[in-house]
Design brief:
By secondary structure, this protein is mostly helical. Helices cover about 70% and strands about 0% of the residues.
Length: about 150
């Protein structure tokens, strides 16, 4: 079954989060790794590289939703620099703008969760409609608040 690798990835990320709990940079990285996995799965379904599956669609949306609501807690002032961070200094110099972008991401994932119902979007078109604004928020936030490494 194709969902087995996804389940293994989610479990691995969960274990990583447990180790990262005391380090905001590692926590941010683990959350973004989770987002990347969810976005990759969503992208594969949207491109037709993976057959659409409602449960997988719901899983991707739920992972992005969880990150949207947890992510903002991992930007204390003492985490501006460090090993392996791609957080832009703009996060701290334009905190209001970052908070606004985060709120927009949260609202998009809230809407996607609501639109996807309990079982997930019923078809690919519904999934695309629900996930599109979420992925758009990811892209715009990365453009404004992430530096390349």
């Amino acid at each position: 079954m194709r969902l087995t690798p996804i389940a293994v990835a989610v479990l691995s990320l969960s274990i990583g989060m447990a180790y990262a709990a005391d380090d905001p940079i590692l926590s941010r990285k683990a959350l973004m790794d989770s987002n990347a996995a969810a976005a990759a799965m969503a992208g594969a379904m949207l491109k037709g590289d993976m057959p659409y599956n409602a449960a997988a669609g719901k899983s991707a949306i739920a992972a992005l939703h969880a990150t949207a609501h947890a992510y903002g807690a991992f930007f204390p002032d003492d985490s501006k620099t460090g090993d392996h961070t791609s957080a832009s200094p703009k996060i701290w110099s334009d905190r209001a703008g970052f908070e606004k972008a985060l709120a927009k991401f949260q609202a998009a994932t809230d809407a996607a969760m609501k639109a996807s119902g309990r079982e997930g979007p019923t078809d690919l078109a519904s999934f695309k409609s629900a996930i599109g604004p979420v992925l758009g928020n990811c892209k715009s936030c990365h453009q404004d608040y992430r530096v390349s490494q």
